[in-house]
Write a structure and sequence with these properties.
alpha/beta, Rossmann fold, eight-stranded mixed β-sheet, four-stranded antiparallel β-sheet, globular, binds adenosine-5'-triphosphate, binds magnesium ion
């Protein structure tokens, strides 16, 4: 089914989120910009510690407090600035207009409430006039929508009575129950086995297509990006180093870091000991070099790369990368 890509729902512009730690200022997000359209799936990829989760948490202003703070930049949801909103105002946005599926499904459900009651919390916001039986009916429908078997029985189960895969589906059902514009899914599959993971990813994709909401999908895995996403933003050390349509990035990866990440995706005919991994470590985010942050690990790096941060170069329509080699090409 072809998806309907609509208007821009989210505009992030030059976002800087810093964490004030005992090492100094950790520049976890250091000048990130991107747009998201209705009906679009945007992947954010990058190694551990590149700032993917802090970017996502910044959009909802759910940052670890008091250490982390958005220090500058703009996040506009349907034209409305979120950075300057109060905690009280953000509470009306979280879950209702932007919803988040957390890294670990096991901890996203409250063990002392039934699945139905946790669903009803969200549904009540959209349907404040409904009585209890009608809310329960809607909760059962929400479980049906995420393909939970025997939903009328499951609705009165407690989280410990259902399997891990089913918990993940319930978390999915909760996040769409108040009909948000945007869902952010941060590595939702790490604690599931591969079969359940594949089923869950398919489900997320189907739900996204049915509801035509925008999805931000955060992962380490380029293989998952290929299956799930329309566009991708590659993050390295707090910045986006390359972004564009998934097909363009796969056909013409332009930043050496993206190229290295793609070489490390195992393909069907690779045997496991030929798996490529990128040697070296990303720079410390509290002591960043002045030039390109990938320079120390890049086989092409020269003095200019180490001295000056590279400009963002347009590769093709909507595909950009920040690398000195592209500018002189
Ligand atoms: N609560 C915190 N206190 C201090 N530093 C933090 C905190 N949370 C994250 N950081 C630091 O911020 C940087 C970005 O972290 P973030 O969690 O966004 O990475 P990530 O890309 O999501 O990694 P992963 O793939 O492992 O989830 C990292 O250097 C991390 O150590
Ligand atoms: Mg993370």
């Amino acid at each position: 089914m072809p998806r309907q890509i609509g208007n821009v729902v989210l505009e992030v512009e030059d976002l800087h989120t810093h964490i004030f730690s005992r090492f100094g200022v950790v520049k976890a997000v250091d000048g990130v910009s991107f747009n998201l359209r209705q009906g679009e799936v945007l992947g954010i990829v990058g190694e551990s510690g590149s700032g993917k989760s802090i970017t996502a948490l910044s959009l909802l202003k759910l940052l670890p407090r008091p250490a982390a703070r958005i220090v500058s930049g703009s996040v506009r949801l349907e034209g409305e600035e979120l950075v300057t909103k109060s905690e009280e105002e953000m509470r009306h946005i979280r879950g209702r207009r932007i919803s988040m599926i957390l890294q670990d499904p096991q901890t996203s459900l409250n063990p002392v409430f039934t699945v139905g009651n946790q669903l009803i919390e969200g549904i009540r916001i959209q349907h404040p006039g409904d009585d209890k039986p009608s809310l329960i009916r809607r909760a059962v429908d929400a479980l049906k929508q995420v393909r939970v078997a025997a939903p009328d029985r499951r609705v009165s189960d407690y989280p410990h009575q259902i399997s891990g895969g089913m918990k993940q589906r319930v978390v999915g059902a909760i996040s769409i129950s108040c009909e948000p514009k945007i869902i952010i899914a941060d590595e939702p599959t790490t604690s599931l086995d591969v079969t359940i993971q594949a089923q869950y990813l398919r489900l997320l994709r189907e739900l996204q297509e049915e509801t035509n909401l925008a999805l931000i999908f955060i992962t380490h895995d380029f293989g998952i990006v290929a299956k799930m996403c329309d566009r991708v933003m590659v993050m390295y050390a707090g910045r986006a180093v390359e972004s564009g349509p998934v097909r363009d990035i796969f056909n013409n990866p332009s930043h050496p870091y993206t190229q290295a990440l793609l070489r490390s995706v195992p393909s069907m005919d690779d045997d496991i000991d030929r798996l490529y991994s990128i040697s070296g470590q990303p720079p410390a985010l509290w002591d960043l070099p002045p030039g390109c942050r990938f320079a120390a690990r890049c086989e092409h790096a020269d003095d200019r790369c180490r001295r000056d941060y590279p400009p963002q170069v347009s590769i093709s329509n909507d595909h950009t990368a920040s690398c000195w080699r592209l500018e002189s090409a």
